[in-house]
Design goal:
The complex is a heterotetramer, with two copies of chain A (285 residues) and two copies of chain B (311 residues). In chain A, the strands form three sheets. Chain A has a seven-stranded antiparallel β-sheet. In chain A, 19% of the residues lie in helices and 32% in strands. Chain A has three domains: 97 residues, Elongation Factor Tu (Ef-tu), domain 3; 118 residues, 3-Layer(aba) Sandwich (Rossmann fold); 56 residues, Dihydroorotate dehydrogenase, electron transfer subunit (Dihydroorotate dehydrogenase B (pyrk subunit), domain 3), CATH 2.10.240.10. Chain A is of the alpha/beta class and 285 residues long. In chain A, helix 6 links the parallel strand 12 and strand 13. Chain B is α/β, with parallel strands linked by helices. Chain B has a single domain, classed as TIM Barrel (Alpha-Beta Barrel). Helix content of chain B is 32%, strand content 21%. Chain B is built from ten helices and 18 strands. In chain B, helix 7 links the parallel strand 17 and strand 18. In chain B, helix 3 runs parallel beside helix 4, helix 4 runs parallel beside helix 5 and helix 7 packs across helix 9. The radius of gyration of chain B is 18 Å and the shape is globular. At the B-C interface, strand 13, strand 15, helix 6 and helix 7 of B face strand 13, strand 15, strand 16, helix 6 and helix 7 of C. The structure holds flavin-adenine dinucleotide (FAD) (2 copies), flavin mononucleotide (2 copies) and FE2/S2 (inorganic) cluster (2 copies).
């Protein structure tokens, strides 16, 4: 457990841009060195609400991309879905405003050493971290296919330059307002088969991740997924963000999704637990 | 030279800013942000006899200027804790206060015996704000008899060395009554306050938001309750040292608790919003004390109680 | 048609949004902003036997998401109140709940006798969260015996007509125990919760900010405590009607208390920040209930308690 | 007691301008009809902190001036001294931001029916409401002299057009950075005598008002002062803002400074009470 949060830094970062993209806000922060340290899958924890806010906890956001601009400092980008008080506040902040953030936090997507065929599956704003991942995979010589799904077109996050970086992009919406009508899982089996996928990466709501995991098990594929649990601290000190994870020793433990996640192996998650403590969990009684 | 030192029982501390139990992980998580030896002490997460998975999730809900938690004392158990966590903290040069919690009076006795010979521990915080399985799950600190029994059990088994700081819940009719009881039972100091029992109902699911239904309220929302508790107890027993906590997020907040009667303060929820909170508070408190003309922390402890004539 | 009506004891109310005692002046101050007959009821400021000047100032301190007050029950006394305030409220077509407070068991008896024949009053809220001069200034609602004695005193003197709503403090080890006691003593309903005892120290003067030192904490900060209290009491006595309060400032907040078990809610501190708060909350609560598919308020009362199987 | 708050309205008002003037912010709000109803001495109660603020109470500000612009709506102006969390937040809000305010509240300065010689005395931002008062008095044919004092030059609020509207303006600062060195009370006796003052109006900290009242008693002058007590609601419902005031019947009562004030007769205030309940107060025991 040495080196928890070992790349993390707290900085006051200026908002460089804030653009509405469909239902989301694409926000860019000037973060300095942090940009170098971030890997696809990591997240950033952001203070919300300003000076005399009643919101005492940070909000976590998956890092969409980072740019190292050398001497002029790095940029970090996120995609915000205005939802409750905190995310709505953040989405309303304009360029020039200074924001307190901590990054990079959490685990990153594992990158295969061989050039493999990877399928990236994102739900809603869950597509955001997959574009950075796609770039890294491509640089390693991997073929990258992508599937993005949401309830409706406004909630599909698929920027142009992101689209260009993948070999194929399939979009699904439940209301059929863009792409195929249905869920991401409706198209996975065909893509996995026809594109001879070796590994699946996913990010989105728990229900979607579970459905994806059922399919990857069916095909016996490696599945790395980024989970989203309610986090009070984001740095491992509060124990609120736990979920049952089976270790290599077969033991189930309540692990923190902020430092042992958000990216975890799909096979290690006890999907059936559904927010209970499964029998046999270490320390359960 | 400004003197920032403080004492709780026989234990001495370089400065009065501690982490709050359960709000600093194992210490490792925060050590990326500052050196733990800069703290007055690291108070460890309450440790129990056996490993515990804690409660099901969701375990937290944000509330106006605060949050609810129901972690359920997840932890590795005392043996692994002594094997891993304490040596690591010692290596960091951290001053260590170990927090213990039991489900029975006997648990407290065993925990005390396991701890009494461990080197490098400055004090014991005894969390008695937890359910007593032998008494219908009633919280030890809620009743004078059980509060006394738990502390006596520690006192008898700890030997003469380690100061005992009894941590009380504010969810009682009279915290002064409980405080007197645990001091009579052998507590050298008091930690005030633990979280306040609360609940949030999720208006989407229309059920309690936490899996454990109720949870402990912490953060700035409860600060006025903490100040009141510290003030009342200090008024009743000015000689008993108090470790104050509850919603401290600035040096001014810490100063408030010290004026009320705390000799040191713990920073809890504030560290969730800002991992550097304890360091920020330490700096701000020092400035606050100096700008008010104090030469030492000690002079300020309980200063709000001085008679009307005082200046 | 959505049914917004509710009952507390035998009393019926057009809607469940009341003002909180002590937070709506005499009614006149708010009537510039909305018509008082739009409220479920106006709960008047706790009235005592004699005129009272209340406490010295400062009487308030803002706190994170809340405030402390120590008004000390300033008011004109029951006789002038019945002469001026009640007739005026009646003329407005307001539904009136009169809140009373005593310093002795006998005070409660006299107040009840003065009120029992007064026309146009729908219910009595009995504030027993005030100091008992006959018992070292201990708060009636803090101890089962004194809580019972005060309510019995009202019950015996009020006659059969007016429902009695006993208002309890959360500053007790078990609010369920006190609730059971006052119901046994004849309370028809319960008002939960009064303010939480707190203190703020002014870091400039380095003394308690309020002249009365301690004060009552109200506002959103205490909402989780209110939700918990209402939930616990409703779980223990599902048949007893509850008037919920504590930090309600939106329809969603009101909905939370109703799901926890309140049949109506009082709006206090929120009216200080927004004189239209009660009207806003009324509208928002109605929408909240309708959007969740309820045909009436009544169906939602205590809905958070349904068994896991429920949807 | 009929007609409490009878002219008060709650409106969402846009900030029209916000300019730093010395240590203060001069802020202008578009308030519509309210501008007509406001009289010198009235105050406005303003929500601070924004959406998810931990500041639950309004802040009171003396109305500096109002303008009726006919069809295009009225303007209301205040002078804000950034002090704690609420006033600092307000002073930082920029034009275009919408603010929730209630006005006009409280009592107004009494205007003599005869053309008299009036002396207006302001401490710090307490000078603000006196300029509007001065205009009204001038229109009634009164001669208006003014004294403004503060600790230092930056805290003297005396705008050019305000200065023009008075017959004489004396400024005092404790550090001598502008005007005469000393307190307002150091110059009052001379002005009262030489200008044959009939009535004194004052606004500022309690200590200053008391000192002024000592002088007006000495000269047997009418003294109307605007007091400043901590207010939770500003509309008379909370009873936090009380102070002991002697009625015409000689009875001292704890009256609300938000509805029975802020402007009160200097002679009715029990200056010696100093935040205690004086003996003989109605209901004291
Ligand atoms: C690892 C991780 C990555 C995330 N990435 C993104 C992202 O890229 N874009 C984005 O818009 N949002 C993301 N979220 C969700 C985001 O952190 C906020 O929780 C969410 O925006 C709701 O916060 P709020 O303040 O608007 O809602 P509120 O209702 O005010 O939140 C109240 C509390 O509940 C928690 N909470 C509420 N909803 C969620 C949720 N869905 N997940 C976790 N905690 C929640 C909040 O963190 C907060 O503590 C991520 C969350 C996690 C844990
Ligand atoms: C009738 C009246 C007129 C006022 N006119 C002005 C004005 O023209 N310009 C101006 O800058 N300020 C004025 N004030 C003071 C102003 O209302 C604020 O209270 C002050 O700015 C401090 O608020 P804060 O949020 O910055 O401080 P905080 O410390 O956050 O305030 C905390 C609480 O204490 C109260 N409080 C603190 N200081 C004072 C004070 N001096 N007087 C009353 N309550 C206080 C606040 O209202 C708030 O409820 C006036 C107050 C009153 C009662
Ligand atoms: C997530 C969390 C976990 C906690 N765990 C413990 C614990 O294990 N033992 C304990 O004595 N107190 C525990 N507490 C209580 C804190 O130590 C502290 O008393 C309380 O939170 C008030 O301080 P604060 O407002 O600064 O957080 C916990 C609090 C929180 C928020
Ligand atoms: C200024 C003030 C005065 C109050 N006066 C009374 C009172 O006279 N009688 C009473 O029973 N409760 C009184 N209360 C308590 C409120 O009625 C209510 O129970 C409490 O404030 C919690 O609700 P809130 O958070 O909505 O304000 C008072 C509260 C405040 C803030
Ligand atoms: S969010 Fe605090 S431990 Fe993970
Ligand atoms: S401020 Fe509430 S009554 Fe005056």
């Amino acid at each position: 457990m040495m080196g928890i949060n070992s790349n993390a830094k707290q900085v006051i970062a200026e908002i460089v841009s804030n653009k509405k993209v469909g239902a989301y806000h694409h926000m860019v922060f000037a973060v300095g060195d942090i940009a170098n340290a971030a890997k696809p899958g990591n997240f950033v924890a952001i203070s919300v609400g300003g000076e005399s806010s009643q919101l005492v906890l940070r909000r976590a956001f998956a890092i969409y991309r980072t740019f190292d601009r050398g001497a002029s400092g790095g940029l970090l980008e996120i995609v915000v879905a205005p939802h409750g008080a905190g995310s709505t506040w953040l989405a309303n902040q304009q360029p020039g405003v200074k924001i307190d953030l901590i990054a990079p936090l959490g685990t990153a997507f594992g990158i295969p050493t061989e050039p493999v065929r990877a399928l990236l599956v994102g739900g809603g704003y869950g597509s955001a971290p997959l574009f950075g991942l796609s770039d890294v995979l491509k640089n390693r010589g991997c073929r990258v296919d992508m599937v993005i799904g949401a309830s409706t077109a406004m909630k599909i996050y698929a920027p142009l330059d992101g689209k260009r970086s993948v070999s194929s992009l399939t979009i699904t919406t439940e209301d059929g307002s863009t792409g195929k009508t249905g869920k991401v899982t409706d198209v996975l089996r065909e893509i996995i088969t026809s594109n001879e996928i070796d590994i699946v990466y996913s990010c989105g709501p728990m229900g979607m991740l579970e459905a994806i995991n059922n399919i990857t098990e069916e095909f016996n594929l490696v599945h790395q997924c980024s989970i989203e649990e309610s986090m009070a601290c984001g740095i491992g000190v509060c124990m609120t963000c736990v979920l049952p994870i089976k270790g290599e020793d077969g033991q189930i433990r309540m692990l923190r999704s902020c430092i042992d996640g958000p990216v975890v192996a799909g096979e290690s998650v006890i999907w059936s637990a559904k927010r209970t403590i499964p029998e046999g969990t270490w320390g359960a009684h | 030279m400004f003197n920032f030192q403080t004492t709780l029982g026989q234990a001495e501390f370089e400065n009065p800013i501690f982490t709050a139990s359960g709000c600093a992980g194992s210490g490792k998580e925060l050590s990326q942000f500052f050196e733990l030896n800069q703290l007055g002490a690291v108070v460890t997460k309450s440790i129990m006899l056996k490993a515990r998975s804690g409660r099901a999730t969701p375990r937290m809900a944000e509330t106006p200027s605060g949050m609810l938690n129901s972690i359920g004392l997840q932890g590795p158990g005392i043996d692994l804790f002594l094997e891993n966590d304490v040596p690591w903290l010692r290596d960091q040069g951290a001053t260590i206060v170990v927090s213990i919690a039991g489900e029975s009076v006997e648990d407290y006795a065993v925990l005390a015996r396991k701890l009494r010979a461990v080197p490098g521990i400055s004090a014991l915080e005894v969390n008695i704000s937890c359910p007593n399985v032998e008494n219908r799950g009633q919280v030890f600190a809620c009743h004078p008899e059980t509060a006394r029994a738990a502390i006596e059990s520690v006192r008898r088994n700890i030997g003469g060395e380690l100061p005992i700081i009894a941590k009380l819940t504010p969810d009682v009719t009279s915290i002064v009554e409980i405080a007197k009881e645990v001091v009579a039972a052998g507590a050298d100091g008091l930690a005030l306050i633990n979280t306040v029992l609360g609940m949030v109902i999720d208006t989407n699911t229309m059920r309690p938001k936490l899996a454990g239904k109720t949870g402990g309220l912490s953060g700035p929302a409860i600060r006025p309750i903490a100040v009141r508790a510290v003030y009342q107890v200090h008024a009743a027993m000015p000689h008993v040292k108090i470790l104050g906590m509850g919603g401290i997020s600035s040096g001014q907040d810490a100063f408030e608790l010290i004026l009320a009667g705390a000799s040191a303060v713990s920073v809890g929820t504030a560290s969730f919003g800002n991992p550097m909170a304890a360091m920020k508070i330490k700096e701000e408190l020092r400035n606050e004390l100096i700008s008010h003309g104090f030469d030492s922390l000690r002079e300020a402890v309980g200063y709000a109680h001085r008679s009307e004539g005082g200046n």
